[in-house]
Amino acid sequence: MLFVVPVIILLAMVVRGLTADADVGGAVTVTDAYTGAALPNTAIVVNGQTLLTDDLGQVRLPARDRALPVDVARDGYAPIAAALPTADDGARAISLRPTTLRGTITDAATGQPIPNVAVSLIAEGSTGQTVASGVDGSFLLADVPPDARVHLDGGDYGVVDEPVGPRTDVAYQMKRSVVTGVVRDASGTPIQGAIVTAGGANTVSGVDGSYRLTGVPDGAEVLVAASGYSDLRLPLTPERVLDAALEPVLIKGIYANGFALATPEEIDRLIDLIDRTELNALVVDIKQDTIYYDSQVALFRDAGMVQPVYDAAELLTRLKERDIYVIARMVVFQDPVLAEARPDLAVKDPSTGGIWRNDDGIGWVNAFEEELWRGNIELAVEAAGLGFDEIQYDYVRFPSDGNLAAADFGQEYTGEARENAILEFLTRSHDALAPTGVKLAADIFGYTAFEDNEQGIGQNFAKIVPVIDYVNMMIYPSHFIEGNIRSAPGHPNDYPYETILESLQRSESVAPGQKLKFRPWLQAFSYPVEGMREYGPEDVRAQIEAAEEFGASGWLLWNPANEYDDGSLLPA
């Protein structure tokens, strides 16, 4: 019995108000500070006695002639200590602030609960707390301080951060800000290195073809592109899971020079050739000594280089109407007009105090100068915006001929420095073009592709190939010397098939696994050197067959006069 009596006494002290004959001093109502709802069964401690509010949240307190201290507490609410003034006939109210936050998190598109969302409380002077949403998407936070913020980290669903405010129950609908999927070819084989772009964001697929693209806004279109394949555009689905199956494509193109572009009859002739044959692409000069369309790039306008010979928008419209793939060719660092206009950007000749010139008397700009990088990248992005499908850099290198011992590049002229400059320029160019979906290609000396070094011009084939979309090796049989091509028993000019096939095979040994980025320039001209036989359509066809047998992503025919024999081409 010694333990029973104290329990009975304690229970007697927890009552709903006072007995009828007690001296009372008015009612107190306890309410929820956020909703104003009455709070029944709330404990009020007064004079050492614990009272419980009734179903209306009220309790009668003792009469008093002085302020009456009370302590009010309830689970899920912040306790308060108050001093009630002397009794009168009016009712008194005490409001308690809730300290719990319950919520649910669902997918805005599907309505399904989202588990494992990290839900955190953030408040000044507080260590905070973090819980994870359950399998049903629910969560509960306790001891929520005033002025707290709630922070949701949903991973693929992004982040929500906002004040808790006067709430105890919340429902969050989160949208996936991430698009995921797998890129495969038509046979189901994963494609590594595909570029996935949407809403200004871009990423690259991994070795298993998977990708994860973050920061994709609602309504965005997803562009999937990979070297050797046709682009695929996919509408964003509510689930934001997009797998892509890419179809292979062979680009078969010819070159159009500035004269042809300025002459409507010549353009008509080239378009007719494309319409009648297997051709599906045209390489269009946009920059060679001057800019051939009305560019707005300040570097070139200020140098007086913008001298339009065609309307780019009009030309692109005509070509696109025939579904012709259009490549914009830019000569980059052999830039004599800019070298004369801006000698501060040119290679210098200390012996003359002027600009350095190669054996043909042509001035070169200095490929170490980042102002040149920015200007050419700006031109590439501008051309992409006009509607070109691909940007092709030519002369993206340092000079190869002339008295280089007399050339001053303003810094140490080492192989490593040259290589790093070209690689950095190409990397920045590719990064700038990636959000546009327009491809970047670079022209490379044919023999450079055989060697794992920069060949004195900054072009390291093995390092360049990974940072661009296509590499155009200029594999002209006439430009080799006897002995260069092991499979050719004589001069390579007499063995066009062997020269192209072996060159591509040796290139792949330098850059293994990259053959879908190879799109060689083929010789569609006769080299005017004694001992070199003229090239006919059968020689051009032999080169085409070698490129296709190897598995290159197409080929381009080079003839500086734009004279192409359709006898070397298959009919459409």
From TrEMBL:
Keywords: Hydrolase, Signal
Signal peptide (residue range): 1-22
GO molecular function, one term: hydrolase activity
Domain DUF4015: 253-564
Highest taxon above the source species: Bacteria
InterPro entries the record matches: CarboxyPept-like_regulatory (IPR008969), DUF4015 (IPR025275), GH (IPR017853)
Name listed for the protein in its UniProt record: Glycoside hydrolase
Species of the source: uncultured Thermomicrobiales bacterium
